Amino acid sequence: MARTTITIDDDLLVELKVRAARTGRTLSAVVAESLERSLRPETAPAADRAELPVWRHGTGLMPGVEIASLGKMLGMLDQMEIDEARRESREPRFR
To answer: What is the CA angle 53-55-61, rounded to 5?
Structure first.
């Protein structure tokens, strides 16, 4: 692995350091990943990507999250989609 020196805008350096601290990685790792990403062709526009929170302490679900309630919520969402599809199929369509 090569070492190099680069000049970076102060605000960008702060953002890189914050990301490194937030993800528990070194500044070098964050910079290397950012450079690698910028050199790869994108598969999806960056605006469509969302950074999702990750629970890094221990294993399993975050405190307060229960599998039973997740299943119930998914069932409710499925039912809402079914109900919406039924409503749409009954509504007259205007052209």
So the answer is: 115
